[in-house]
Amino acid sequence: MNNNKQKDLEDDLLPEYDLQSLKVRRFGSERKSFAGKIVRLDDDVAEVFPDAEAVNQALRSLIKARHDN
């Protein structure tokens, strides 16, 4: 094997990379599907909510208030 091919095959992965912590992304039927609807929030609105559950809770409160009036 010549030097160029040997150089290309050398391990250049840095030691601080922890390959054990990487997650495997599955494809096909084993992959989780998302059955819900995705809605894009404007940046100023998204800043107010820490996660999707907080958004859902706020929207449910708004729906309840609207139906109560």
What would your notes on this structure say?
The model has no long low-confidence stretch (mean pLDDT about 80). The chain is about 40% helix and about 0% strand. It has helices spanning about 5-10, 45, 50-69. The protein starts with a helix and ends with a helix. It is an all-alpha fold. It has a domain at about 35-69.
In short:
This protein is mainly alpha-helical. The chain has helices at residues 3-9, 43-46, 52-68.
Descriptive tags:
elongated; mainly alpha; about 70 residues
Write the layout of secondary structure elements.
Blueprint: H1 3-9, H2 43-46, H3 52-68
Query: For the report, how would you describe the main beta sheet?
Result: none
Q: Would you identify the regions where 5 or more consecutive residues have pLDDT less than 50?
A: none
Figure out the total of helices.
3
Specify Rg, calculated over alpha carbons.
24 Å
Mean pLDDT score: 80
Structural class by SSE content: mainly alpha
> Approximately how much helix is present in the residues?
40-55%
Q: Give, in order, the helices and strands.
A: HHH
**Number of DSSP strand runs:** 0
Coarse shape = elongated
Beta percentage is under 5%
Note the gap between the termini: 80 Å
